[in-house]
Every structure is written in C-alpha cells, then in structure tokens.
Amino acid sequence: MQKILVVDDEKAILDIVSRYLAREGYKVFAAANGKEALTFFQKESLDLIITDIMMPEMDGYDFIEQVLEKDEDTPFIFVSAKDQEKDKIFSLTLGADDFITKPFSPRELTLRVKNILRRVGSKEERAGNAIEEGPFRIDEEKFKASLYDRPLELSIKEFQLLLLFLKNLGKVFPKSELYEKIWHSEYFDDANTLNVHIHSLREKLEKVADERPYPHIQTVWGLGYKMEG
C-alpha cells in the first residue's frame, strides 16, 4: 500500500483530502504543520507528500527543504492559496511535481496524485537495487547508504563492511574472513586496520542514529564481529 503524507493547517482541507485518498486505497498520514510532518517523514517510508505552504511553526518550504536534504527523490505537491506566478515558479524550482492553487477539487487532486505515482512509482520501485534492512538503506550501484533516511558519509571499506553485515545479520565473521572479503589479503598483514574501520563505522552509525534503535556491530570476543539488534 502506497503511503501519502498530507500537510495543512486547515483541518477541513486536511480531513477531506485524507478521506478522498484513503478511499482510493492509499495509507494516509495527516499533519497540521511542517514540524509535525517532519516527524512522520522520519518515521515512515513515504511515496508522496502533499503540503500547504503557509503554516505555523514550520512552513511548507522549510519542511520540504529538510525532506530533500535527507531524500532528494521524494515526490511532493504544493497546495496553496498563494497564486502568484513567482510562487509557482519558486515551488517548481524546488522540485515540486505539481502546484495546485486553493480552492481546488479533491477529485482533481486525487487524479494528479495517481498520475504522479504512476510516473515515479512507489518508493520500493524507485529503490531499484537498493537494499532496505530496518532503518538502513543501501544502494550498491551508487555506493550510497542512509540510516533513518539520513545519509551516511562512509569510506569505501566502511561501506563494504556495512553492506556485508546487513546482508548477513546475526552471522559472526572471524577477523580473518573480513580481511579476505573486504581487503582481499591475509589478516596478519595489518591486524589493526580492521579495528580502526570498525571503530569509525560504529561512531558514524551512532551519530546519525541519534539515539534511535538500529542493528549494532557487536564484538564477539575471541571470534570477530557480527551485526545484530
């Protein structure tokens, strides 16, 4: 089921748009401002965002800018009473897939949503060869990794270690095997290299997770390492 986040500080609009989309089989999340919407975005894997612009606490522009910092591929529609050409141009420049002026027909909005999702596909389809494991997302082809939709700045070896662990959750890897798979060399060539990379990877994961739960790299004394949690 495709997931859509609707953001608007007008409860009547929020309710009617949510009802129309739910009747079409979408799972709908509703938020009254950008700050509340950001919480949904961080927790859910969304296929589309529909957001108003002028809202209290955090407006639609600020919200979308934060969304795009974490996932530049998320499709979104602006719905707003702002009807000047400069507002539409700025919205489309940000990357909006559509701009709809209030008042609008919920049926028309629903059709536009269907067209966009038909064109871009679901988030799972857009992921292509990416691997998703819990809060992690790994794109092997692009060498990109994220945790809770926040990018991980990893070295090539750290990326390869993370990928190997995520593909084999719970499996204990002896240090010698990790050297063979990642460095293609004997463990005793440089016994400290692995420890340094594991330490760095752990620190980066912990920082990006920001106290949220995720599978941890654990030391199995006398054997090696595993990822579990």
TrEMBL record:
GO terms for molecular function: phosphorelay response regulator activity; transcription cis-regulatory region binding. Residues 3-117 form the Response regulatory domain. The keyword Repressor applies. Residues 128-229 bind DNA. The modification 4-aspartylphosphate is found at residue 52. InterPro entries: CheY-like_superfamily, OmpR/PhoB-type_DNA-bd, Sig_transdc_resp-reg_receiver, WalR-like, WH-like_DNA-bd_sf. Residues 128-229 form the OmpR/PhoB-type domain. One of its GO terms (biological process) is regulation of DNA-templated transcription. GO terms for cellular component: cytosol; protein-DNA complex. Keywords: Activator, Antibiotic resistance, Cell wall biogenesis/degradation, DNA-binding, Phosphoprotein, Repressor, Transcription, Transcription regulation, Two-component regulatory system. It holds the Pfam family Response_reg. The keyword NAD does not apply. This is Two-component system response regulator receiver protein.
